[in-house]
Amino acid sequence: MTKDELNMISFEIVSYSGDARSKLLLALEKAKNGDFEECDSLIEQANDCLNEAHNSQMDVMKEEANGETVTMGFIMTHAQDHLMTSLLLKDIIGTLIDVYRK
């Protein structure tokens, strides 16, 4: 895998994770206002984004598992950080939305 290919995958992960984060925060706002139908739709969209980010991440993992040398740079480290924080945000927001539902 070339450095350019790895950078493109990294930017995909950042993009998908960022989109998920935005949708999750908007879903929380919808829950605060009692609009659970829109909230649930946004959560589903965020999950789709996170799945896409995970798929991009798996492309890199498959390359490495197949013996390809993958050199982690700052951009991929940033992408992994983005994905991890978005996944954590999903869990926290899910709990907060459950509170608003009650």
Automatic annotation (TrEMBL):
Intracellular or extracellular location(s): Cytoplasm
Main location: cytoplasm
Assembly information from the UniProt record: Homotrimer.
Keywords: Cytoplasm, Magnesium, Metal-binding, Phosphoprotein, Phosphotransferase system, Sugar transport, Transferase, Transport
Gene3D superfamilies on file: Phosphotransferase system, lactose/cellobiose-type IIA subunit
Sites of Phosphohistidine modification: 78
Entry protein name: PTS system lactose-specific EIIA component
Cofactor: Mg(2+)
Disulfide bond as UniProt keyword: no
